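Table 4 source record.
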Amino acid sequence: MYFCLYTMSNSSLISILTFKCPKCHKGSLFVDPNPFHFKNVTKMPDKCPCCGQRTELEPGFYYGAMYASYGLSMMLFLFNFFFLYIFLHVPSVWFLVLNTVLLLVLWPIIFRLARVIYIHLFVKFDPFAIENFKK
C-alpha cells in the first residue's frame, strides 16, 4: 500500500534521508520501508505512487549508484578511522574488525541511500508534480 504523505519541507536533503521521490518528495522509493527486510531490500515500485515519476529512468540506471555507495562507505570508513584509531587508539586489527562489522550491518541502508542519492542527481523537484499527475 502506498501513501502520499504531506511533508513539512521541500528540502532535497530530507527527501534523500527519508528515501522519498525526487520529483514530489512525498512518494516512497521503496516497496518496504524497512531496509532490514532482506527479501525486499532492492524492490522499488515502477513509478512513484504520488506523481508517476519512473523510478528506473533507463535499463541499468542504478549501476551508477555504485559510485555513491563507494563514497558513502569511504566516508563511514574515514569517520571510523579518525574516531576509533586516532582518538580512542583502538588497535588496528580491532579497528578493521569493528569497521567491517559496521559496514556489513549498515549495508542495506548504504545501498538504499546510494540509489536515492543517484536518482536525485537526475530528477529535479517539481512542486506541482502531484497536481499535474492527478489531472
